[in-house]
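queue> holo job accepted (zinc ion)
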Amino acid sequence: MESHRKFRYHGEYTERGYAAMHAPVLVLNASYEPINICAARRAIVLVLKGVASTEEINGFLLHSSRSSLRVPSVIRLLEYRRIPHQTRALSRKNILMRDRNTCQYCGLSLPSGEMTLDHVIPRSRGGLSTWENLVACCHECNRRKGNALPHECGMKPAKEPKPFSMHTSRHLMRMMGRSDAKWRKYLFY
Ligand SMILES: [Zn+2]
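queue> job finished
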């Protein structure tokens, strides 16, 4: 088996090669259900290891001394993988992603660096740091809400906070896939 390291980028522009290796690749389960997005580099490793097959290509070619390889745009795992319902770790990044960087109180969308997390039930009132009690929040609303419970200050999250679900992931995949026509048939059905 050839290691992916032996493959060189085709073409004279290394920027193109870099882009090719970091292009997002849609990962399908053996059942064709979209389950993830990874970088082309990772997808190529999976294909070379015989873990996944290339379903669609992105137009780039990689060369080694012995063969050439088309860079995938969509790959499919050869063995069905059970996906647990909650695979996402509870983290600031994932909470912001779930809430699409939108303050759940005033609806303002800001870059991640300008957002904070709000405990719906404040920690000082016994609120826990869980998917169900953390929401994306702008600093202004966070300060305004202070240590009040939602009904005390009239500030309720726009959406009931839930764990990051497959539904949310699918939404993200669709947003990313909008630019890649080859992803569409797997994502829009
Ligand atoms: Zn706000």
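queue> Residues 103, 105-106, 108, 137-138, 140-141 surround zinc ion (CB under 6 Å).
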